[in-house]
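Usage example:
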Amino acid sequence: MASFIPSELEQKWQQKWEDGDIFSARTADGQKKYYVLEMFPYPSGRIHMGHVRNYALGDVVARFKRAMGFNVLHPMGWDAFGLPAENAAIERGIHPGTWTTENIAAMRAQLKTMGLSYDWGRELATCMPDYYRHEQKMFLDFLKKGLAYRKESWVNWDPVENTVLANEQVVDGRGWRSGAPVERRRLSQWFLAITRYGDELLNAIEGLDRWPDKVRLMQQNWIGRSQGAEVDFVIDGKKDSAVTVFTTRPDTLYGASFIALSPQHPLAAELAETKPQMADFIAECAQLGTSEANIERAEKKGIFTGLYAVHPLIDGQKLPVYVANFVLMDYGTGAVFGCPAHDQRDLDFARACSLPVIPVVRPHDSDDNFSIEDEAYTGPGILFNSAGWSGLDIEAGKEAAINALESSGAGRRKITFRLRDWGVSRQRYWGCPIPIIHCPTCGAVPVPEEQLPVCLPDDVECDSPGNPLDRHPTWSDVACPQCAGAAKRETDTFDTFFESSWYFLRYTDPHADTAFSAQAAAYWMPVDQYIGGVEHAVLHLLYSRFFMRALSDVGYLDLAEPFAGLMTQGMVCHQSFRDENGNWLFPEEVEKRGDNWVLKSDGRGVHAGRVEKMSKSKRNVVDPEHIIATYGADTARLFMLSDSPPERDLEWTEAGVEGAHRFIQKIWKLSWSVTPCARDFYFDSSAEIGEAASTLARALHKASHGIATDIERFAFNRCVAHLHILVTAITDYHNSPSTDKNAFSYAMQQLAIVLSPFSPHIAEEIWQRSGGEGFVSQAGWPDADPAWLKEDVIEVAVQVNGKMRARISLAVDCPREDAEQIALGDEAVQKHLGGQTPKRVIVVPNRIINIVC
RNA sequence: GCGGGCGUGGCGAAAUUGGUAGACGCGCCAGAUUUAGGUUCUGGUAUCCCAAAGAUGUGGGGGUUCAAGUCCCUCCGCCCGCACCA
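Running the assembly step on the lines above writes:
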């Protein structure tokens, strides 16, 4: 027997697949299509285990659907613009483009060793002008349609580097490189009007029935449609100035005790001009940056403006106006009224500032003495302390409030979305240039379409922070397309989510002169199965849904939803280790001796930490390249799929890989007894073929049925269990005295088919040895014969008063009465009945019998 | 802070969606093969109990039901996302 060298075997088959060009997808009208897509990687330099998991999952689906007779599209490409390339440029003096291209080459080579069934002819990289030129055109089309517009918004500003910082680059309120306290700055930037589709994006979630419920919920909450009212509060002493607030609880207006403005509210800025204290407070708030998580986690603080607002309903009542760090400028109107009795955050603030707490909603089972202590009351109830609204329930109260506001002119019904328009401008080099020319006389002028693409210049200095496009001596100097006067190119580039919002469309027609052709999109779209990390549950997936609608509206295609099916995978985790000094250690630096972990080098003790997401900083990483070189891709893929269900986190363990490897080797050894089998061989379920052959036939049919069912429901770990059971059955048959060489080889050939989505290389080898035609990668999935799946006798549990007391064997679909009689006749059952007569007997056919007395 | 999720043997998990808890794998134990180690093969393995019988058991507490890992309430722990990381 030849020893098993996975790399040789795998290279051989990868070469044959490539030579045979068997994974190229061609538009084939009439054949049912299936589009499988995994989220394309950012070319960071090396693949990591998360990629291996993602692509192994996708390849199972692609290979299985091919076996089921679908015309499968399974492409791969590179999400190639982004911040890390610029960081590499600053840190290592390498051009972002060079860095990215080298990374792509390295990662492509790594991916190819996995034996994934991609159509590499459709590969794309978003940093190529051939790709991004189309999104410049899209942007201009959006602009014409009013879907793109310009407005001011806030960014994190590093005052030392004079650059805009990403949230990731703000650490504890300081720039990550400069260490300087972050400021907020207002910049004029481009936005895409995603909120125009708010209702549609929300309503269509219901139809995404092959998406995980959790993702649908998250998108729903993210869009966050709320009904309520806008209320205008006139500032005392300034008749014509009012602060407008948005509230979902107009019913609690009689409980209002203050008004709070966002630190970015125009009125706050106005006050800061004359009040240094206010200016200081706003500056302090600015240090929290733009991250909503940071803002909302910060200690609640506010300062009094000295102004009072007039309560629109209560004569003579005035509410103090504060500027508070917990009010977001981006939501509603950037101002709220505080009702401490019925909002915990308002209550905390009111207690800190000694403001009145006026309960206006009481629970149904309380009376008008209901009062508030440390906890705001947010539950259902009846209004009180509310003049004419007292006695109404909350919903009726809201209606009454809105009617009162509308008739007095102090407010109006209002629907607000939490969703904000998408700011796409980035002050960075490594992105798609925004095709706009700024002219001192004509303003922002679109670059004429015949001048597209606006290519990134290569000759840039990337050795210092900031946008090199701003520093380029000539690139931005152009003539205005309208007046031919001297003008400047826009030096901002697009958010990289722009690229990932339509790449799945480009794959359908990757060499088209346009972004894609409507025909190709009509054939291949939507993506039937999309697979990727749950971290994209909202942003990327929502932007893509928006893009489809926007592109449809400007005439590119006619389809609203890009992804019919979605599967979100869990993270790949590994135990982390630290030495005595708290330094992180790589897994290969430690080993287990007895119950303790020690350093391999000198045997000193090691702290074994938690099992957590693989990350470079904690060093708990395992390099896929090393694993594939050692065990082979078949083993690595099989292990990735075998232990945890795909949506859950997976712990990478050495022992687990070893186990998968043993299983592959077991199959390898078995494969040496395989000889070409008769083409028309099959197990006849209507003939007497003997015990051993029947058992084998049953195992084969159960496996092909079970694996197909479990692939459809993403229970890949169960698929691996089916494979183990099948291999055990084939081994037993092989070892049995009545073994038949032809039957054995046939069984192995069938195994090859059902194994091929998981470990395709060894499957090809077995297929070839058993005389299979062509590639197993192109073979059809075996139909399961129901006759071989049916059991004759089934074991049924018998409970007495809900406790399991016996198991009885019954014929399948045995009549209820017979089952009941047999159960009651059972010795153990009789013993537990202790002579009592059953009051009730529940018979669940083929499952359980419960005798109640 | 807000939004979402997860929690079952020593470990990864399974449970036909309210019907026999622990399939399959890892680990461990015993035996066989082997000069030995490794490999391989066979058997065992939720806990308590010598065994049987029995009892207990799905993060904690409570509830609904003939029947709860599954449904409801509540508490605890861990993880993910929060709009300029991708």
